[in-house]
Fold each of these.
Amino acid sequence: MKNLNAISALTLRRLGMMLVSLLFVMSMTAQNISVKGVVKDAATGETIIGANVVVQGTTTGTITDANGNFTLTIPANAKLSVSYIGYQTVEVPVEGKSHFVINLKQSAVALNEVVAIGYGTVKKSDLTGSVTAINTDKLAKGLATSMTDLLAGQIAGVNITTGGGAPGSSATILVRGGSSIYASNDPLFVVDGVPLTPEGVNGEANPLSFINPQDIQTVTVLKDASATAIYGSRASNGVILITTKKGKLGQKIAISYDGNTSVSTNSKLMDLLTADQYRSFIDTYWTNPTTGMNTEAGLMGTANTNWQKEIYQTAISQDHNLSVSGSVGKLPYRVSVGYTDQEGILKTTNFKRTTAAVNLSPTFLDEDLKMNVNLTGAYITNSFGETGAIGAAYSMDPTQPVYATNGINSAINENYGNGYFMWMGSNGQPVSLATANPLSVLTQEQNDSWVYQSTGSMQLDYRVHWLPDLHANLNLAYDLSNSNGSKTIAANSPMSYIWGSDKTGSAEYAPYYQAKTNTLLDFYLNYKKTLGVNALDIMGGYSWQKYFDTSWSSATYATNAGQDVPRVDYPEEYYLLSFYGRLNYALMDKYLLTATIRNDGTSRFAPGNQWGLFPSLALAWKMKDESFLKNVNWLSDLKLRLGYGQTGQQDIPGGYYQYLPGFTTSGANNGAAYEFGSTWYQLIRPNYYNTTLKWETCTTYNVGLDFGFLNQRFTGSIDAYKRVTTNLLNSIPVAAGTNFTNNLISNIGSLENKGLELTLGGRPVVSRDFTWDVNFNASYNYNDVIQLTRAGTVNYPGIPAGAISGGTGNNIELIAVGHPLGAYYVYHQLYDSKGMPIEGAYGNGGLYISKHTGTPPVTMGFSSKMNYKNWFFNFAMHADIGNYNYNNTAAGQDGLVYSYISLGYLSNTTHSAVATGFNTIQYFSDYFIQNASFLRMDNMTLGYNFNNFFNSKLKASLYGTVQNPFVITKYKGLDPEVNGGIDNNVYPRPRIFILGLRVNF
Amino acid sequence: MKRIKYLTIISAVALAMFSLSSCTNDLNVTPLATNISTAATTFNNTATPYIEYLAKIYAGFSTGGIQGEDNQVDISGYDGGSQAGYLRPLWNLEELPTDEAMCCWNDPGVPDFHSFTWTSSNVYVEAFYARLYYQITIATAFLQQTTDAQLAARKCSTSLIDSIHTFRAEARFLRALSYDNVLDLYRSGVLVTDASPIGSSTLPPYATAQQIFSYITTELNACQANLLLPAVGYGPTYGHANQAAAWSLLARVYLNANTYLGTSSTQYYDSCLTNCNKVIAAGYQLEPTYQNLFVTDNYKSKEMIFPNIYDGTNLTTWGGLMFLECAMVDGKNQAVINAPGAWGGDRAVQEFVGRFTNEETNYKLDQRYSMVYQGFNHPSIDDNTQYEQGTPLLKYANYSSTGVKNTASFATGAFPLFRLGDIYLMYAEAVLRGGTGGTQAQALIYINALRDRAEGSSGFTDLEITSGQLKLPFILEERAREMFSEATRRTDLVRFGDLTSSSYVWQWKGGIKNGQGIDSHYNIYPLPATDMGANPNLKQNPGYN
């Protein structure tokens, strides 16, 4: 054992030497005195390799060698500053001495960090569950409009996929593979102690965009059930705790500005035929070989239009944030405002946001009463544009002009389409199945929303004056939103003849409204006591939360679009009541135990099924503190964690009253009435219901190991988990004749996720002038459906899922026992000797369940931050490996008949479709299940820190960032990163060039 | 000191619990929205809730949900307009596996019909079964909500109770109608009756063809007395199913009884004739002009016994008449029938055209033949991906008998679920199959009445047949000419033993161009895999395991 230690120590020293010689060649100055010294750990006496020894106020310095020694030539009156990561910096006056022994004390900062765990905090070293905390200031950032943009690829086991490149677009967050099929797979978000309303907000693509990322201090992800179970019924898919920035007691006023302006460009276009290529394609493909006639050629135009260029633009965006923080007497405060104006690369798309946040954290009664008040507000306007333009640009005949001009094409009729070209039939009427002019789709439709969102909380923490171990904590909070929006399609526009059900050229007006109010009362008592080797921390509390929402929407075909439509509200509400408690016990600060329990009641189930109990237990062993490891100096942390816990899920789509037998009326004038005599009667329908509905339960087992080397210069952790969801809330076929539906949400089935996660972080280079931080994470998750129907039934193939575009009611996935969620259900394509697919030739056995899914089994993230003197260079990248997309865009175009379907219009196609040569569209060929593994460089930033910005006292940073510079992939579609794997005309992610400035006053 | 400490802790906890425990009552909520109600707040002593619930049972045969365009669909997992409704899947199941229709769409389940390759997972097989049992279940729940005891408890007036008795009889008729579809298409299923515990997890028992047949006939015979009297033509009771609808359904069930039950008893033909005679005696008359049976104002027709109603404004769907009109036309022939859309999907194979051109010397005089579109000039379907091969059947028109076009976005008009012409054909067939209660001479009169009407409304007789020509095979031919595209063809071919036989083939039957015989288990559809998985009591039909 001793020998082994010696060897590894030797290896490390060699490594240190190499780093010294490679990276730090310092020049010496001659006229000064020469000093020598050795740097040691104050506690152990071990020499420290690679410590920084710098003459204060200069760039002169060196680092210690493999024996901890250093030599420097310096002025006799200089002061040495000696520092090393994880140790407190020491300043030593030279005072003419020539030999120094410098002892450094461990700071152990990393392990003393406090981490939020829900209803309290814990020292990082005392964590027992799988918890990742990220300080947002330490991230390599691109253009981040939402927290989800910051975190993509940063945390093992947390897979974030943005919905595309639209400004302010949504993101899907999957923690450890998702535990539900029908119920939501979204994690629970808790902002400063307030669990947010789970469903999104109508009129807002990303419900998290109301929080300005600039206001976020830390994001903590609770992953395993031993950590999440304290949130009980909402915690099955992980909990994400967001802590916003606060002022500090005694802090001087600090004003900072952070802003950027950016230019977004299209990074890739679909490989379509140009107008000339298309002309020759139609001539070749559609000429009848016997007659030599080409009946379709007459439909072609003479223009050369690149429809993709018509719909995209170079977009300019800006973002400004100003914050003031400090402390007025005993009142620490922070106030911030932010403004974001983001233009999309698809014309007419835009996202504008104004945010404000106020935090006050005063203390009273000799610091016995701490108060924390948070108020945030956001006003967001979205112009969604019409993303249908993207698919239309793929299909639209490039030989047709953008605008209708009589005389160029006989089919053009200027009376239709508001000046835009549209397909006209031989009867002089618009062709109702034809492609709508892509540019007109954008300009003739207005799809806007206006969203107000606000959260507010007041947290009171009272330390009982004569019993300081006891704290009482009261949190009162709200989270509300109010959104309005509407879609308006102009009368006589091309879409008014093609889309919707009217097709007569009428205008279309579809307004909507939604208001949500979520109110919270939380009260808990916390008692902490250390008695000898026993440390105890007990917390118990009660929580009451009410979710209320009301919404309304309408769609009318009116020539007088924009008129007010009377609003009818559809309000609904539910309540969640909870009792919860946690026990943290530490023996000798080495053996840790955490037990939590939560009893949740929800109004979404029938009396008798409303309450669910969610326990958890976790054990941790700080092995590093054992005598046999205490003196192994290169190892700075080693901790084993074991966790078990149960969490629940009650967030099912379809309303809050699904256990209740009830009736719904159609209302008047809704196109659903029945005629008796000459009177049209409204309809009353009995609603389906399930009185036995209850929680879905997810049981998680987790084993984890945390480790750190060289006084936490390199850290990491490995976690392995198994999660079993039982009593799955699922919409499954219900026996015919037993309910008022064919699929009933029932607690049937089970699902399993197994996975591994690895997180590594380190600072390979630490010196005065150059530091380098890297972070890497990788995770693997395997998901498997165990049971879907009641036991003992046979011949049930599974639940069709994954609706695709094309045909009516086509699905490409099957949820089946023994397969992962999202497994594709396709035909086995056969190929000719040249490797080209043979149309309609499929392997035996019909449809089969593919082993491929759109969810990546392996995900990785890597980020790097380098600082050299005042320069900094950061980048972040992430990779998905083993995911396969269903290339719906290609499947829908790989059918040459599609170019002309005897319906009076032509459709463009791609080069790859011409090469494939399918006559008829083959939606279900596994040819379209395509490898979509990728590595994406998310962002790269080069910047400079000014210590005296323009000779002032201001500190500033100026930086340039390129977001999405490249993607490495074999995928044949436009972008491999598609949430869920069905690739159908995704809003392309732009390449963004950002110029940013941060100034601290 | 210590005592005070504990006292404080206990009182703090107690205070917290006290102030908060009152909130646990919050878990018992009732819906806030005004469009959702419970049974107690829905049903009272006014007629409106009962008539609106009854309206829903009827509307369930027309549109897929309780909002227009099949929105807020009744059954889930299926496309509202194309799969989850009534008439469109019924039409697909009854017409696509026959010589009357072939569809060039590649939509899920559609190509299976012509090739006879459907399985228990075919989406139409599943969705239509779900629709039928949805209808059966809501009709049964209506009956369970309107017992005499409940009506008395709600203090309904005597006259209201009388009306509700009629509504209940209609609900029983509509339930029997759905059971007839179950019996005809699936041959077995489950029986949901007034005693069934809807909303519980109790699984209904398997029901054989015999059990379903007995239930339908018993129910129809029992509910007749409370149904409205037959009403000929448009009137204040339009839309309600009356006694003639029940007789018509009985006639159809009895005509097919031997097929359903695997028997060969002529007593069912007697019963068929009994019911045909009742309908005929009620005074229904053939519509003088055949085309006017299939236009927007066909509700006026005195031939209509039970209409399946659609309306471009008040009752809209992507299925039903909308589908029958739009799916049969493309842009080139859309204007012929003023279809609200041109979807270019369905058309007949050339053998159907032959029912006129090969078997009627005077087919050009037959106005029914004028609905067989000739514009494509390519009656043979050599390539099913090409819509312009084959022959569209432009039977349903979106204009009135006087040529007024419907300008709404959705089709208007009634689909005749039962009409007198069908009764005449059933009468003749029952007589030819040996039923008593009718005569061959009368049968010939009825058949020639149809054929004279087919020639026009001015007393033509060129298409009349002789008594020597009145044979069973002729009936099958005549049903093709008279009833094409009215969703009875598969039933007819099964009854005549021709659906799967190798001696009666058409293009692409069984998946090959010239057609071929197929295994006889395709005479009935399988019970859907969805219900097989949900209800272990079921027994799959032969040949589908």
Note: The beta strands of chain B are 36-37, 65-67, 71-73, 102-103, 189-190, 206-207, 304-310, 346-347, 413-419.
Amino acid sequence: MPTSHVLLGLLVERPKHGYELKKEHDQRLAGAKPLAYGQVYATLQRLERDGFAEVAETSQEGGPERTMYAITDGGRAELTQWLNTVDAPAPYVASPLFARVAVAGKDADAYLVRQREAHLTRMRELTATKVAGTPAEVLAADYALQHLDADLRWIETALTRLKEDGNA
Amino acid sequence: MLEARGLVKSYGKALALTGVSLEIAEGEILAITGPSGSGKSTLLHCLAGIIRPESGEVVLDGKRIDTLAEAELTRLRRENFGVVFQFGELVPELTAAENVALPMLFNRRDRQASMSVAADWLDRLGVSDCAGQRPGELSGGQLQRVAVARALATEPRVIFADEPTGALDTLGGEQVMSALLGAARASNTAVVLVTHDNRVAAYADREITLRDGAVLTGVTP
Amino acid sequence: MRMLNRGRSRTERVRALLVAAGAGAATLLICTAVSLVDTRNEGSSLTALALTLLALPVAGLVHQANRLASATRERRLAGLRLAGATPRDVRLLSALEGGWLALSGSLAGALIYLITHLSGPMVQVPVVLILVTLSGVVSGARAGRHVISSPLGLVRRSRLRGPRKTDLLLTVAGVGLVVLPLLMTKGYFRIPVPFGGYGLAVSMAAGLVLVLFGVTLATTWLIRLYARRAGRRARSPEMLLAARLVEADPRAWARALSVVSLTVFFAAAAGAQQAGVGAYWHAHALVDLALLVALVTSAVALVVHQAEELIDHQRSFAALAASGVPERALGAVLVRQAFVAALPVCAVAALVGTLAVILPLGDIYQVRWLGWAGARAVAVAGIGVLAAVLVALAARPLLRGALRLDKLRA
């Protein structure tokens, strides 16, 4: 998870506290693993070291010390570059699902059927959440669903091919 | 509530169903998936009483319906079942509202009452501004939602949907599915859904996969 | 032309034969009719009228046969289009084919007439020949039109829903050609006409053929109006469906009913005349017989139309059947359609036919004759509607085949 860039993206709107950043991250990146405070501050310090963020002000209003961070011009440039980066579509096929089938060969049948069940159950759960979710949650659920669907369709293809190869 | 026991059906020399059994409870949403040619639509048509199986039974509330006389079976379908097809299959010369009202009219309800119930259903499915338009003027998603309204308007016990989102894109399909299932759950109507799309099947409570005319169990056949 | 002839199936040869035979029969009838016209002898004039009337359904049959595009013919023409022929090329070819068939048939008919009437008048023969051939050309051109819109052979006809301006022109011209000679025989005009009495009769015959083509205008509009009203007031689903289906395609119904409406028109007119002219029973009977034959042959047009209707509505009817609408009800829809389309047409045709005779005669017409005229008008209108309804009833078994469910498979 390119956390540093995500935080930069959140800072571009206005300077924020670490606490705000964590909350917004969890809200906007629905479905992702929630960010730990420790990780937030570690990332912020790294950003500061690299010159992408700076401390805006330190307030102390009778409560614990809160440091507000702001984005620098260097940070803005770095963010723009990251937003425009096109990832090379996965050159390697790295998936435990695939690995198991590659190893088991035609004995993978039973495993595939069970994995399919698991995928379907998860898809049902995700679909149910979409009914009352926030737009961000729906978007995240769609992402998960469509990737699960892709896996599922590969599983079905694999089952058919294995059967054909078995008959051949 | 609705049961199939050992259904067998062939078309000429090709076996479409090789002994399928399943059960649908009141208000349950069931998806039937499988590759094309697996016999999904045939199974659906048997369950809906549209075709008769060669052997096996279809039972509704404990009474066999596959042995009923044509006239009785037609009436039973009219009063208990609703159907949604892949391409809507509305009557192009009638307005959307008239299309929705038509099955009610055939159930001998009077015109004014039928039209107002139809308007109500169109509103519930979010297509009330289509009421006076003809099917030719509607988009795919709107068409399907009108078709769903038509199926729901007679308050059936089961709705049979054959690839309801097949002709739509992802978001259009989502609209139709949430409209259909939202309304079905609200009135405790069962839905039997045939689809080859896993994401559509994920809307159901339960799923059954057919392969080569038989139900796929834990082990590949 | 040779391309069009290559690869003809048997049904197409039958069709070609029908067209040629029809043209021949029409030629023979009209030539004979003209020879019998004698402005002084009412009896033989009536017989002439009867023969001309017989020519009408024949002409209608020819036109229908041309339209009866068999699947292979349509596919061949579509293939031509895909190979690069323009719509005009296809229409031209079809027109040429129609003209060629009509000419050869007409020649045969003319020959028969000449042989059997060696002593009689021959002047009208070339005129009739030309007219019949021309109608063959026009009919072919119009039949070729509906392949144009979909060269890939989708079975959608290019549906022209509303009335067209050429129809109006044709009707007016046709009516003019018929009325003018009538007025002249009554002494209203004194225009020197070529061929004297024959010229008048020929012009009447030509006028009638034109009217046949053009009458679809008025009936289209009438049918649409009545269907819309029937749909608004419909209380049963069968009536609602029937009315809306007719309203959506009035032109096809008008075309199918064109011969029926003309038959009713002439029957009513003949009835109004009969009341006054009592003596010529056998001539009247002949006229009635001709009308009956016309009605029966009009059934062909109606059957063709019913078949096309079933094909067009197959999917939506099958879907309705699947959701539990009984076949009986769908059959009732077909019957009601025929009723909704035929009723206004026959009623108006009967009324107009009766008035067409009564009004010009005005004060000569005695009130007591009105009774017979009126009764006959109602009767013929009823028979016209009955004919349409009977065809629809007979077509119901076809429904079962149309409702076969594999049509619903995606």
Note: The interface with chain B takes residues 109-110, 112-114, 120, 123-124, 126-127, 131, 145-146, 148-149, 152-153, 156, 159-160, 163 of chain A (CB under 8 Å).
